[in-house]
Amino acid sequence: MHVRVKWLDHMSFVGESGSGHSIVMDGSPEHGGRNMGVRPMENLLISLGGCSAFDVMSMLKKGRQDVVDCEVSIEASRADSVPAVFTRITMKFLVTGHSLSEKQVQRAVNLSVEKYCSVTKMLESTVEIDHEVTVIEKSEN
């Protein structure tokens, strides 16, 4: 796996993935940026949510669950001193579908967060990660 990060100007950077995709990162104005992209630490949380949601959806599809939406909302706290690492992360999974098995959804989320998600596994030794699951029944309209 290979990525490249290139400085654009001010405090803006473009990250380029080996798979051919790009993401713009920028700092806040008080740090010399122009607020034209995600912050690097936000990007890490996005990666965490994406990694885990990928696992969850993969497991639920294999389990033939009729999912119509899956969202991971993440809140994180950071240390007050430099480096301002994450000290606590809470992941809230909201899975919507038709006749979903709450047991299967909970199991998929637990397996992702506790075993399969590579990003979670890298972070868990230095930050407390909690998760919760809400299953919503989608009415037939």
Question: Can you characterise this structure?
Answer:
There is one protein chain. This protein has two domains: 1-38, N-terminal domain of TfIIb; 40-137, GMP Synthetase, Chain A, domain 3. Helix 1 crosses helix 2. The longest helix is centred in the middle third of the chain and has 23 residues, at 40-62. Strands 1-2-3 form a three-stranded antiparallel β-sheet, with no helix packed on it. It contains three helices and six strands. With 141 residues, the chain is α+β, with helices and mostly antiparallel strands. The model has no long low-confidence stretch (mean pLDDT 96).
Low-confidence stretches: none
What string gives the helices and strands in order? EEEHEEHHE
CATH topology of the largest domain: GMP Synthetase, Chain A, domain 3
Helix content: 25-40%
Strand order of the largest sheet: 1-2-3
Shape: elongated
Which CATH class of the largest domain applies here?
Alpha Beta
Tally of helical segments: 3
Corresponding CATH architecture of the largest domain: 2-Layer Sandwich
Structural class, from helix and strand content?
A: alpha+beta
Look at the structure and name the CATH superfamily of the largest domain: K homology (KH) domain
Strand content range: 35-45%
* Average of pLDDT: 96
* Total of domains: 2
- Report the biggest beta sheet as strand number plus sense, adding barrel if it closes: 3 strands, antiparallel
Distance between the termini: 44 Å
Number of strands: 6
